[in-house]
Design goal:
five-stranded antiparallel sheet; about 350 residues
Length: about 350
């Protein structure tokens, strides 16, 4: 089993801070407030239960993620989707001016309605719903316009990913799992660098530079969907929304909803993906009827890029991936990237005929 590490404590609200923030909202008497330990540990969240039964989620933006212009873009997009009855949480405005963004003492706060639901259960039905809803999201945002600038970067052919790969030997060097295996780590990082470059080049040859761009979700994975009675109840976290070709969302969704894990460490995770779930997600999205053969040909390589990018960015910063050692996760990523590369032609044929 892969080694686990002790992660830093999650950021929290102070009692005085909470009282001041709540004074700006008209949410009635708060009967209880408890930590909601999901997402970034640098961004504290509280589940608030009002005396009248209403529930809210209060979030303090992490430093570096609190640019008011970026937050404004996300809030305008969220409001736009709400108006079209797309299942996203409602923003709670401040008492005096109904502002969706509260800035106090250099910090940025948001409050949302809390949506009760269950997590993705891995079933083929819910997997297909995830693909269908992503297609609906892309259709809904076709007409979206705002004065706020949208971010443009993504995991495809990204200089930040290459910089992260170069930084990993230094950030992981002191970990017990690496000591005595420094040469192996260097070889591993070089292999991932070459795989990322090769995948990006193949995608470019498919004409990626000319693909139409519009707003994408940017982080379409099982943790950002809630279900109720087997149906999607809410789509969460629009913080990664940006202007990119929608196929980047599709490829990442195919990756996230088909990746196979175990309760053991990543050393024991299968190299293969769940192809039944992959096919159902793809069928739900329905790209083949309206998409291009070039984009279908690029999907497996986009999945490789997304797989590598998701792992290396946090590892370059902290040396770990959540509670898992970075070295173990990187070895798992190489095995899965190798499997995708070996299956590229077969998977592409499946994408093209569905």
């Amino acid at each position: 089993m892969a080694a686990r590490i002790t992660t830093a404590r999650r950021a929290q609200f102070s009692p005085g801070e909470l009282a001041v923030v709540l004074s700006h909202y008209d949410v009635g008497v708060i009967a209880s407030a408890r930590d909601f330990p999901r997402g970034s540990r640098h961004s504290p969240k509280l589940l608030l239960c009002a005396a009248d039964g209403r529930q809210f989620l209060l979030k303090k933006r992490a430093a570096g993620q609190d640019d008011p212009f970026r937050v404004a873009f996300t809030h305008v997009l969220l409001t736009y989707l709400r108006e079209r009855r797309f299942p996203v949480p409602a923003l709670i405005g401040t008492r005096d001016d109904q502002n969706s963004l509260l800035q106090l003492n250099g910090a940025t706060y948001e409050m949302f309605e809390y949506i009760v639901g269950e997590r993705y259960n891995g079933s083929l039905d819910q997997t297909q719903q995830a693909g269908e809803l992503l297609r609906q999201f892309h259709d809904e945002v076709r007409a979206f316009q705002t004065e706020w600038a949208s971010p443009a970067g993504a995991y495809h052919d990204c200089p930040t990913v290459r910089q992260a790969l170069n930084a990993i030997p230094a950030t992981t060097a002191g970990h017990d799992s690496v000591i005595g295996h420094e040469a192996e780590l260097l070889t591993l990082v070089q292999d991932l660098y070459e795989r990322y470059d090769a995948a990006a080049e193949r995608v470019a040859r498919c004409g990626a530079e000319g693909w139409a761009r519009r707003i994408i979700h940017g982080d379409w994975h099982p943790g950002n969907l809630l279900f109720r009675e087997g149906r999607v109840a809410a789509v969460l976290d629009l913080d990664s929304a940006r202007l990119q070709p929608p196929i980047l969302d599709v490829a990442n969704g195919l990756l996230q909803f088909s990746i196979l894990r175990t309760h053991a460490g990543p050393d024991e995770w299968p190299s293969a993906f769940d192809e039944a779930r992959m096919q159902r997600f793809w069928a739900g999205y329905g790209l083949r009827a309206n998409g291009s053969s070039a984009q279908c040909s690029a999907i497996t390589d986009l999945m490789i890029e997304s797989l590598i990018a998701e792992a290396v960015l946090p590892i370059a910063e902290t040396g770990s991936f959540g509670h898992l050692t970075g070295f173990g996760v990187l070895k798992m990523v190489r095995r899965k990237a190798e499997w995708l590369a070996k299956q590229r032609d077969r998977l592409t044929r499946q994408f093209e005929v569905q």
